[in-house]
Amino acid sequence: MSLKSNFIYSSILTVSKYLFPLIVYPYVSRTLGLSSIGIVNFIDNIINYFVLVSMMGISTVGIREIAARKNNQDQLSKTFVSLLSITAITTLIVIIALWISMYTIPKLIPYQNLLYIGLIKLFFNFFLIEWFFTGMEKFKYITIRSILVKCAYVIAVFVFVRNASDYVTYYILSAAMVIANATINIIHSHKFVRYSFKSIDMKPFLKAFLIIGVYILLTNAYTYMNPVWLGFVTNTDEVGYFTTATKLHNLIMAVLFSFTNILFPRVSNLLAEGKKTEFWEKINTSFDAIFLFTFPTIIYILVAGPDLLHLIVGDGFEGAYLPLRIITPLVLIIGIEQILVIQILMATHEDNIVLRNAFWGAMVSIVLNILITSSMGAIGSAIVWIAAECAITLLSIHAIYKKMRFLMPFKRMAAYVVTYLPLFIISIIIYRCLDNRHVMLIILAFLIGGYTLLVESFILKNKVINIFLNRK
């Protein structure tokens, strides 16, 4: 399948991961209220972090190794079963750890009903094997399956979640999505691999699985653990503010990841075949994709983000407005970080550098969480997140230059800043002149979209725009 087709399917898939919950969220936030939303998000972030521990580095190692062997049936089956066996061991350990935590941590005991639902979600996540189909570049299958399941989820939420006491039902439906996707994936995987456990060899993958897994755990500490820390040192209302702000941010990031995610198996395959020139060409294409989406998006959210968020979730979430604006630059920062870490360092097997940088990012997160989160609440968590991501990005830039003499396209970034500065000023003027917030949101969207299409095509000459205009 072509890069363009993969991008289209991956865009639909990745956006749907956040768009469907975003469709549901306005209804759920009004039906359940801030406190119930905070409780569900508090527990779900704990479960999601346990999921991360159970999966460790499989989301990256799995894609990388499957992509390198997808043209060899025997090697593909052997690699898949070996990787699946590793995750089976870690999942079992994590399930036991979660069950013990449910009965020994006082803060969690009142929420055991939700935690049992999360335990089921954790178990079925083992069978999700999304990494396998991503490595195989089966984006069409993943997209169609995912959207069908999400449509069923949306209908179920509107039917069964009727009042504030239905937050347990809401969480059951969220877990049911994982169960459905996992069941379909396992059945469909039999078309590509043979489940023979006689030739299991976990040793070649174990080191990378653990190293990259620790990296993922450290970097996700600021996304999953920030709400958990908030819940422990403040209250579930602050958790509600922070997670509501990140809902919109995650939707934006979904568009970016749709392109960088499809390139990871592609660049891994290029390196496996020794095509280094094409590898660096794809890296430059990734930077163009990041710049294309991030600059107009940052302008729109900085100017009109609170009004867009209010339109989505309604009244009572005003405490999410400032955290949303604080984390908005993360769209660019994390986008660059994804290229540096996943497409360059991980694809070239520089896993030790990745782990070291993640460690220092986690140290920044831990120190700042202790210093400011309890007093600043959701705003403090937003500051912690952006500081930690900046640390990892800067360290990665330095490591890649030192190791490979690859320098970030700073001149290209400067050109983007200069080109988009007039749009930022015009957007602020329009925002202040229009009293009708809905009209303002629409006008700004068309203005920014039109401006972006023109300058990217004729002034900045973005490679990704050209891919679509030339139908490549």
Main attributes?
18 helices; 472 residues; mainly alpha
Provide a descriptive summary of the structure in words.
This protein has 472 residues and is mainly alpha-helical. Helices cover 83% and strands 0% of the residues. It contains 18 helices and no strands. The longest helix is centred in the N-terminal third of the chain and has 53 residues. The N and C termini lie close together (12 Å).
Topology diagram in text:
Layout: H1 3-55, H2 58-69, H3 73-104, H4 112-125, H5 130-135, H6 139-160, H7 167-189, H8 203-219, H9 225-233, H10 236-272, H11 276-313, H12 321-327, H13 330-346, H14 351-376, H15 378-404, H16 410-433, H17 437-459, H18 463-469
Roughly what is the average pLDDT, rounded to an integer? Answer: 82
Judging from the principal axes of the Cα atoms, what is the shape? globular
Q: What percent strand?
A: under 5%
Low-confidence stretches: none
Q: Percent range for helical residues?
A: over 70%
Largest sheet: none
- The ordered H/E elements are HHHHHHHHHHHHHHHHHH
Counting DSSP H or I runs of 4 or more residues, the number of helices is 18
- How many β-strands, per DSSP? 0
C-alpha end-to-end distance:
12 Å
> Which structural class best describes the helix and strand composition?
mainly alpha
Compute the CA-based radius of gyration. 22 Å
Summarize the structure.
With 472 residues, the protein is an all-alpha fold. Helices cover 83% and strands 0% of the residues.
